[in-house]
Design brief:
The structure is a single chain. The chain is built from eleven helices and twelve strands. It is of the alpha/beta class. The strands form two sheets. It has a six-stranded parallel sheet. A six-stranded mixed sheet has the order 7-8-9-10-12-11. The longest helix has 16 residues. It starts with a helix and ends with a helix.
């Protein structure tokens, strides 16, 4: 069993030995996914390497401030110009989370898998997985250090973004002394912490407020008060003018109700498909729950895509949570 330090060395060798990399994060990228993508791109640029950054869909507008975020390609809008032999997957709990970008991979592509989800099964040829890291950005901070590359403000801003968003503003249990030390070092490099907190944690769009209102109107609570859930339909999204990133944080509202152990957001994709987001107060391992539905994530935050009539999915998921309680 290799150590974390050995994994970092293997990752460093992967970056130094090859060239012309494809960098991809998970579908519907959040702050950690986008920051990790640009951090790897920035690191490769410092090493004099060629690379392409990509995602299945668009990058949220509120994250376009990061280094070269506007250069991340949208795989849904174009066909691959070629197949990439060397691929770097960041913040992807499993291979399927890459989405349509797999069409850009060469057969038998060499994959460097960098992630912090405990459900990651090590699908890469080289794997840097640290499931107690607060964010993939924390792992990439260590990788930059291992490569001996000097930080600049833009790279520090990206790293801080990943830490800030995946720790809920440094509030979650994953906020270790190491995380605070890294954040301090990044602030010393000129990162504007208050500005990022305002942009990423406080500011909301009008469509986001509208869809939140719709979701809260569907709030249901189990008889024992330990499970609470909300539903967002395609009609809600259209009528509110909302995008996927406008759903960020909605699952926390049912979870934050006093006495609730598990909060759930059901995002209906169609009559036969729903995306399920789980949040746990700690009593239930929602990563294991999500795995039971073909998904994954963390002990306290996880998700899955479930096929079947969405009303049935709601009932099945709630009953499964009840069985865990």
């Amino acid at each position: 069993m290799q150590t974390y330090e050995q994994a970092l060395e293997q990752g460093k060798e992967f970056l130094l030995l090859h060239d012309d990399y494809l960098i991809v994060s998970h579908v519907q990228p959040d702050g950690d996914a986008v920051s990790s993508t640009v951090m790897v791109g920035w690191l490769l640029s410092c090493l004099g390497k060629k690379f392409t950054m990509i995602n299945e869909g668009p990058i949220p507008q509120r994250m376009q401030y990061m280094w070269n975020a506007d250069q991340i390609l949208n795989a849904s809008l174009q066909s691959p110009p070629k197949q990439f032999q060397h691929v770097i997957c960041v913040d992807c709990a499993d291979y399927e989370r890459v989405g349509k970008v797999t069409h850009w991979f060469a057969d038998e592509a060499n994959i460097l898998n960098i992630d912090h989800h405990p459900t990651n099964n090590g699908y890469g040829k080289v794997n840097i997985i640290k499931d107690d890291a607060a964010a993939t950005a924390e792992i990439l901070y260590d990788l930059v250090e291992a490569c001996g590359v000097a930080w600049d403000k833009e790279a520090a801003t990206a790293a801080y973004t990943g830490l800030l968003t995946d720790t809920g503003g440094f509030r979650y249990s994953s906020t270790s002394p190491k995380v605070m030390k890294i954040a301090s070092d990044l602030l010393a490099l000129g990162v504007n912490g208050p500005e990022l907190a305002e942009r990423l944690l406080e500011e909301i769009t009008l469509p986001q407020l509208k869809v939140l209102t719709r979701a809260l109107n569907t709030l249901s609570i189990s008889e024992d008060g330990q499970i609470a859930w909300v539903v967002v339909t395609p009609e809600d999204m259209v009528e509110c003018g909302a995008q996927n990133d406008d759903l960020e944080g909605i699952v926390n509202y049912p979870r934050n109700i006093q006495g609730v152990e598990v909060g759930i957001l059901f995002k209906v994709i169609s009559d036969e498909v729903a995306k399920v987001s789980f949040r746990s107060a700690g009593k239930v391992d929602v990563a294991a729950l999500a795995q039971g539905f073909g998904g994954g994530g963390h002990v306290r935050a996880a998700g899955a895509r479930v096929e079947g009539p969405w009303q049935d999915t709601v009932n099945q998921v709630v009953e499964r949570v009840k069985s865990q309680l």
